């Protein structure tokens, strides 16, 4: 299926066609380049939590995730302990998955350690795996869910202590964070990678 035209007359990737939060996310955030460590850490975390769930579920819970994980401040989350894990497991406003919560803490610590390579090391590591030839899907059938680059990124992060960063999750991260333009050819948002991030 190619882009579909919404009630506002704009062509979009089919999943962002209906009016509501998913359309807003599609139009203003998906595929727009991130900036700053906490923004990258937030997206890395939310993509991990999304595994096995719908993005609509995670998007609806994003404000609660931000509250629960100290605004995705890497230093703050890296300092969380076993008591914080139990607090988060009792928080019905987020997705209560112990493995994903513990992975978030481990990833925060890994991100702190990664700063030995510079303050923007996490961002540079992800961007270093951008494809030389970005995908240009015309239909949903042509869209990928993984790539050699996402596999390489997954391996690179795992060697640095990150968890819950499989190649499919990393492909979703690369799409969402504007590592390449994920929109279908013909979608009005294609080419929005250079917009100012939220």
TrEMBL record:
Keyword Nuclease attached: no
GO biological process, one term: base-excision repair
Location of region: Disordered: 129-150
Binding, Zn(2+): 13, 26, 183, 187
PANTHER family noted in UniProt: DNA-3-METHYLADENINE GLYCOSYLASE 1 (PTHR30037), DNA-3-METHYLADENINE GLYCOSYLASE I (PTHR30037:SF4)
Gene Ontology molecular functions: DNA-3-methyladenine glycosylase activity; metal ion binding
Coiled coil location: none
Keywords in alphabetical order: Metal-binding, Zinc
InterPro entries reported in the protein's UniProt record: Adenine_glyco, DNA-3mA_glycosylase, DNA_glycosylase
The protein's name in its UniProt record: DNA-3-methyladenine glycosylase I
């Amino acid at each position: 299926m190619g882009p579909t035209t919404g009630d506002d007359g704009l062509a979009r990737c089919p999943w962002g066609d209906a009016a509501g939060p998913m359309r807003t996310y599609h139009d203003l955030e998906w595929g727009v380049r991130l900036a700053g460590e906490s923004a990258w850490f937030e997206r890395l975390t939310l993509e991990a939590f999304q595994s096995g769930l719908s993005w609509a579920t995670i998007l609806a819970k994003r404000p609660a995730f931000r509250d629960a994980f100290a605004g995705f401040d890497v230093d703050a989350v890296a300092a969380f302990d076993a008591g914080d894990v139990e607090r988060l497991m009792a928080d019905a406003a987020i997705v209560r998955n112990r493995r994903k919560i513990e992975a978030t803490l481990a990833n925060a610590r890994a991100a702190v350690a990664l700063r030995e390579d510079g303050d923007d090391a996490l961002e540079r590591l992800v961007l270093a795996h951008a494809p030389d030839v970005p995908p240009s899907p015309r239909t949903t059938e042509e869209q990928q869910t993984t790539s050699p680059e996402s596999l390489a990124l997954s391996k690179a992060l795992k060697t640095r202590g990150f968890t819950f960063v499989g190649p499919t999750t990393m492909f979703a991260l690369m799409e969402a964070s504007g590592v390449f333009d994920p929109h279908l050819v013909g979608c009005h948002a294609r080419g929005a990678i250079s917009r100012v991030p939220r």
